[in-house]
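Quick one from the shared queue. A colleague (R.T.) flagged Monoacylglycerol lipase ABHD6 as missing a structural entry in our internal table.

Convert sequence to structure tokens.
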Amino acid sequence: MDLDVVNMFVIAGGTLAIPILAFVASFLLWPSALIRIYYWYWRRTLGMQVRYVHHEDYQFCYSFRGRPGHKPSILMLHGFSAHKDMWLSVVKFLPKNLHLVCVDMPGHEGTTRSSLDDLSIDGQVKRIHQFVECLKLNKKPFHLVGTSMGGQVAGVYAAYYPSDVSSLCLVCPAGLQYSTDNQFVQRLKELQDSAAVEKIPLIPSTPEEMSEMLQLCSYVRFKVPQQILQGLVDVRIPHNNFYRKLFLEIVSEKSRYSLHQNMDKIKVPTQIIWGKQDQVLDVSGADMLAKSIANCQVELLENCGHSVVMERPRKTAKLIIDFLAFVHNTDNKKLD
């Protein structure tokens, strides 16, 4: 083989070795950085752009794709201790001609975190309304989607601001009052009674606790490498004190059952999506909502837990699209 060709392979091998070694080093030493890069890359691939908007001195961070058109815009509210990027797995399967907005909830990720902020469900609803008005998203009624805590906020928002919302999708929402507590809620009450707030299962501080949380929230048993678990924990640990404060606020007497107390005020067409094997919030909540909301469709997903968005993103996207088409066609027929 010609010496120049040998040199070419040596140089090429060395060039390839550098990014490979960098990737391995990041994976082993800085998994949290790798996770951030992963979300950045996914947003870029899906065409989601990050922007900031301010209401007085309060900053909201959000991502969006598309522009408002004849179809309703879609505003998506994430759950407790998550962020706007949790919706990316669903966004992947949504049509690109829809106007999508995913906002960081109060105190999360790029949205302002203030010790003076009202973190109750009512307080969060008011903040989201400020965000909506900043974007003028309610210039035309929009479709509101929320999951878990975000579902509770979405449901109460639809009750408080009915003219803003054209239709509603609640994915295993919190805020309902059950006749009997499931195992998870019983454990939470025991922790509250013993004041052991450091042990809240939804606020992991070790890779082992992160693994337990994933098993609690998901029916599908994901095999997550130890380094990724460590990265997920590293990303969360700086925020855990805030998460504990927020958690105690949303399970307080003021907020715990706020969706239940307002569900009969929801008048827009509503879709309920719930995993049948949800261990966090019992699936019987879907029936409660269906009995209280006049125009309501219920979709129960087999072999699916609380993390519907993560476990069944394609199905979730299809259900949302089909529901929007149904509501849109129904509205058009009323106009004919």
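DSSP finds 13 helices and eight strands in the chain.
The radius of gyration is 22 Å.
Added to the table.
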